Amino acid sequence: MPTSSDMTTRLDTNALDPNSLEPNVLDTTVLDALQHQVALFARRAEQTRLGGIGQARNSMDRAAYLLLNRLDQEGPMGVKALAAGMGIDSSTVTRQVAPLVDSGMVKRTSHPEDGRAVVLQLSPRGRARLEEVRSSRRALMAMVTEEWTAEERDVFCDLLTRFNTALSAVHNSLVQPAPAG
Fold this sequence. Notes:
Helix content is 59%, strand content 6%. By secondary structure, the chain is mainly α. It has a two-stranded antiparallel ribbon. It starts with a helix and ends in a 6-residue tail after the last helix.
């Protein structure tokens, strides 16, 4: 089991050999601790579903939350744009949006410039429901980090954002089809 000092060890910026992508022996302890903590985080996130507290706890699945949140932040858009922005395929978005449309949280409307195209838009009901869930999840995050300073919350959020961005970039590079040759 890694010690707490192992978990705070900084990675050497030359830790990876670009030809082998194998870490130096000196850096494996922190990398092992990091992958272990990410695995624990994934388990805890799934157990709690990071679904907030109170009546809204676990009342919206992750896919619905992310779709509604994207529509709230980016505004109305087509399925392809929504899929591209979320890094998933259009068929997945179509499947995930269907129950949101059925429940009245998302509206399908005609594109203002091309009446044949469909645009997805957050409905007033969807906006209210999203805010209820956000508020519940915000309360959970406040509870989990109540002993943290504002600076620690900011740093953690910045690092987690950076980690997610890098993880997405690695995922995208691994799933890209090989160039035709």
